[in-house]
Amino acid sequence: MCGIVGYVGPAQPSTRPLDVVLEGLARLEYRGYDSAGVAVVGPAGLQIAKKAGRLENLRSLLAENPLPDAVSAIGHTRWATHGGPTDINAHPHRSFDGRVAVVHNGIIENYPQLAAELAERGIAPVSQTDTEIAAHQLALEVAKDNDLLAAMCRLASRLEGSFTLVAVDRESPFEIVAARRNSPLVVGLGEGENFLGSDVAAFVGQTRHAMELGQDQVVRITPERVDVVNFAGEAAQGKPFEVDWDVNAAVKGGYDTFMDKEIHEAPHAVSETLRGRTTPEGNLKLDEMRIDEAILRSIDKIIVVACGTAAYAGHVAKYAIEHWCRIPVEVELAHEFRYRDPVVNEKTLVVAISQSGETMDTLMAIRHAREQGSKVLAIVNTHGSTIARESDAVLYTHAGPEVAVASTKAFIAQITATYLLGLYLAELRGNKYVDEVATYLEELGKMPHRIEQVLDHEDEVRALARSMKDATSVLFLGRHVGYPVAMEGALKLKELAYIHAEGFAAGELKHGPIALIEENLPVFVIVPTPRRPLLHAKVISNLQEVRARGARTIAIAEEGDTEAGGYADTVFWVPRTTPTLMMPLVTVVPLQIFASELAKAKGYDVDKPRNLAKSVTVE
Ligand code: F6R
User: Fold this and answer.
1) Residue 426 Cα, ligand 1 centroid: separation in angstroms?
2) How far apart, in whole angstroms, are the C-alpha atoms of residue 563 and residue 49?
């Protein structure tokens, strides 16, 4: 969950190590923003500055008390797990002897035992964190042989839980050593300097050359070298790759917030996700589907595992994949999956959907699935992420970096990718002919333009949101693929505007939720196309039912739907999509804009809602 940056550079001490680390932290702040801290190492020894709250607080501290020039630095932006978000609990943590400093992401589960050992030696922690215990233990290890890499290997082998642990040593300023287990870490490869980061955003402004690290590996970076070993200290290999994210993609690009920028990037996210996946003749080609075709033909069930917004993308996918492929699709919240003893075997295809590729709940679910003999296909946005690495095949969404905590363009790209998967399976298994698949692809290809058409009307949505800033509760109703969209609309509003919001299947209304309807309660209704008369008529009835009970009704409806226009107080029009299954790609957009604007009207931080972090790397 936390963000980590490391830098080691030329022999001449300078401000560059600190500058690079602060720039990296600014890009990683979405991973956590309870506190931030840095440690620099140089001729003046090991110096630490850290502060509770946002990175600005640390910057103000550094402006008042500058750190000396250095040759290496590490930095951390925190999302608190053990110990509250205070100055003392902020990372880096210094060892009892002042020799090493560490930053950490994850949870060290056996820290009470390690702390008890330290207590026997009279070493008492000053913070409430598990990380500080690791700092003291590392100092004891490095004192044995003055070899930070070997010390880290010994320590990492003793740790239980998940961790990325990064350390600097006062006695060895030109090296940084880091270990990872179940927690992300990538290396940035420079010339005469090298970098570490929780993800490539940490150093994308400095270098495009990067290296993935495997599970249970330790890396040492110096200005000239990168050495990778396993926890036993044996030589191991990282996997080099090129970062294809544009550095500008990680900054706001003229929008008020990253979220607004990312909502506007949805058309591009869809076209990028489709790019390169059709032949010149317009047929589907998914080179990344590295699962044996015979296995894919034999599967009798698909289980989508994901959390939050990604799970709603899975719910949308269920409608399409079942319809196109005639395979039963279950959608399971990843954190529930392995605890209920699910029926999974070699005939099950597990599809993990994750923007970050680091969500621990989803990672644990796929590990469980693979242990049961299932093949796992990941639909992931972040290259080199753990879920991508641990799956049998990966279909990247290519939405570009998503910085705002609330997921927007990634959701739309996830739906697009699941549709590609559904069409691929339908063709492979003989449920659809090549030309039928090509027709769907052509329709998908039109979606970027259709999303742009919705964005053209964003001012109307924003005006409505501002007028509703005092609402205390909002309901969202949908049917068929509109149902997951309703749930997603509610989630966006909860997480950004801290308003009670619920998404219901419209048909469920009469079974209970209708009791919630009262005068002026805002109710959004995602209306299906009138070209599905039966479905449409049902939702129009629901719209009338809530309106008759005094609700303020807002419909998201297809252009030309006269009935929706007649029964709703406000209508946001979306262009006609064929088939109906494509509707979520446009109907969700007004809901994203609405939540963003309402949160702004209430004066909240849209990009960093309270209590949340972008990448949830703890269970
Ligand atoms: C909501 C949101 C979260 C994530 C969820 C899964 O806006 O962003 O619900 O969708 O935490 O995250 P990923 O997709 O990174 O696995």
Assistant:
1) 28
2) 62
DSSP lists the bridge partners of residue 107 as: 162
Domain locations in the chain as residue ranges = 3-244, 258-445, 456-619
Q: Is the CB of 26 under 6 A from ligand 1?
A: no
H helices present in 168-307, as ranges: 258-264, 266-274, 293-298
Give the CA dihedral 131, 137, 140, 146, nearest 10 degrees.
-60
Give φ, ψ of 561 to 5 degrees.
Answer: -80, 90
606 Cβ inside 6 Å of ligand 1: no
Q: Which atom of ligand 1 is nearest to the CA of 408?
A: 7
Q: Show the tokens assigned to 226.
A: 């990168």
Q: Are 390 and 563 in contact (CB under 8 A)?
A: no
**Ligand 1: nearest atom to the Cα of 382:** 15
Among 1, 262, 354, 355, the mutation site with the greatest number of ligand 1 atoms within 8 A of its Cβ is 355
Which pLDDT belongs to residue 529? 96
- Cβ of residue 310 lying under 6 Å from some atom of ligand 1: yes
Does 3-244 match 456-619 in CATH topology?
A: no
Strand intervals (E) in 435-547:
473-478, 500-505, 522-526
CATH topology of domain 3-244: Glutamine Phosphoribosylpyrophosphate, subunit 1, domain 1 (3.60.20)
Give the residue-averaged pLDDT of 400-423. Answer: 95
11-33 exposure pattern, b = at least 16 Cβ within 10 A, e = fewer: eebeebbbebbbbbbbbbbbbbb
Amino acid at 300: D
Domain 456-619: assigned CATH number: 3.40.50.10490
* Percentage of the chain exceeding pLDDT 90: 84
What's the gap in Å between 1 CA and the centre of ligand 1?
12
Per-residue pLDDT tens over the stretch 200-225: 889 989 999 999 999 999 999 999 99
Number of other CB atoms surrounding residue 563 within 10 Å: 17
DSSP label at 105? E
Tell me how far the alpha carbon of residue 482 lies from the centroid of ligand 1, in angstroms. 19
pTM of the model: 0.79
Average pLDDT value over all residues in the chain: 94
Q: Mean pLDDT throughout 234-262?
A: 83
Cα(186)–Cα(210) distance, rounded to whole angstroms?
Answer: 7
Judge whether 489 and 524 are in contact, CB under 8 Å.
Answer: yes
How much distance in Å is there from the Cα of 18 to the middle of ligand 1? 31
Catalytic residues: 2, 614
| Residue position matching structure tokens 């997921």 | 407
Q: Going by C-beta distance under 8 Å and a sequence separation of 6 or more, which residues neighbour residue 426?
A: 324, 325, 432, 437
> Is 616 close to ligand 1, i.e. is its CB under 6 Å away?
yes
SS3 of 327, please? coil
Q: Does residue 359 have its Cβ closer than 6 Å to ligand 1?
A: yes
AA identity, residue 547 = R
Q: Are 451 and 270 in contact (CB under 8 A)?
A: yes
- Residues 18 and 73 sit within 8 Å (Cβ to Cβ): yes
Q: What is the CATH number of domain 258-445?
A: 3.40.50.10490
Q: Is the CB of 314 under 6 A from ligand 1?
A: no
Residue 176 and residue 166: Cα distance in Å, rounded? 7
Ligand 1 centroid vs 309 CA: distance in angstroms? Answer: 5
Are 461 and 594 a contacting pair, CB within 8 Å?
Answer: yes
